[in-house]
Amino acid sequence: MTLKRAGKASENSPLGNEKTGTGTGKNLNEVAHNKLEELIVTCTLKPGSYLRIQDLQTLTGINRTPVHQAVTRLSSDTLMIIQPRQGIQIAPIDLTRSHLLLQLRRDMERFVVALASERASSSSRRQMRHLIGLLSTHRNEMTIVEFNEFDRRIDQMMLAACGEPFLEYTLRPLHTIFRRLGWIYHTQTNHGANLDMTIDSHLDVLNAVVAGKKDAALIASDKLIEFVDAMFPILETEVAPSVFDVTQDFDPF
């Protein structure tokens, strides 16, 4: 199936170009992690495929030690699987498991938006209002790549507003798992060609948190999860199994 609205991040992205290509120490480790995470989300690193550390070095342009650190971290996040004597496998997508994890994400997101509604500082709320304005202004020409930039920023702002660092380490892998599913939904299915529902769902959450309306934020968060839940039957029927796991590729002709 032809990819739809995949696009690429614009050099004039409304969020600006914040990606760092160079760095040292911990910063370079984070750069390597972010680059590999993005390659996983966009399925550039195909689910189920096998690679070597050297392959990942070539793809990221980063040397061995930061890439190795990133692989270890992504393995802990269940996004990569280190297979002795076979290399590194990009974790296949198991829709049954993902559907189960959605229940966990629902409960955790409820906790986050409730806390953010109560704790967000005036500075955090100003940043969220700015993001709402950008997302509303640029929504009509936005690609899934550009939306994912907004999505990451929204997640960061929500977690920062909560003021509890532990939440990032538990939620970030979940966000990546579902961002990859969202990428497939929006690029591989007819239902996902339009980003309006995705954008509206996120705006509803942001607006409620900015207003400090905890109950409205919980309702908006639940509706966002319901939207994600509705993706699963479509993914199961419209997307070839090999998209979720390249080892399932089968062509009898």
- State the end-to-end distance: 18 Å
What is the C-level CATH assignment of the largest domain?
A: Mainly Alpha
CATH architectural group of the largest domain: Up-down Bundle
Compressed to H and E, one letter per element, the order equals HEHHEEHHHHHHHH
The biggest beta sheet is recorded as: 3 strands, antiparallel
Mean pLDDT: 90
Helix content: 55-70%
Q: What is the fold-level CATH name, i.e. the topology of the largest domain?
A: Four Helix Bundle (Hemerythrin (Met), subunit A)
Form type:
globular
**Contiguous runs where pLDDT drops below 50 for at least 5 residues:** 17-24
| Number of structural domains | 2
* Class by SSE composition: mainly alpha
Q: Give me the count of strands.
A: 3
Biggest sheet: strand arrangement: 1-3-2
Structural commentary:
With 253 residues, this protein is mostly helical. It folds into 2 domains: 25-90, Arc Repressor Mutant, subunit A; 95-238, Four Helix Bundle (Hemerythrin (Met), subunit A) (Up-down Bundle), CATH 1.20.120.530. The protein is built from 11 helices and 3 strands, in the order H-E-H-H-E-E-H-H-H-H-H-H-H-H. It has helices at 25-41, 53-60, 64-76, 95-119, 122-138, 144-162, 166-188, 196-210, 214-229, 231-238, 241-244, and strands spanning 50-51, 80-83, 87-90. Helix 4 (95-119) crosses helix 6 (144-162), helix 4 packs antiparallel against helix 9 and helix 6 packs antiparallel against helix 7 (166-188).
Keywords summarizing the entry:
single chain; 253 residues; mainly alpha; Arc Repressor Mutant, subunit A; Four Helix Bundle (Hemerythrin (Met), subunit A); 2 domains; 3-stranded antiparallel β-sheet; 11 helices
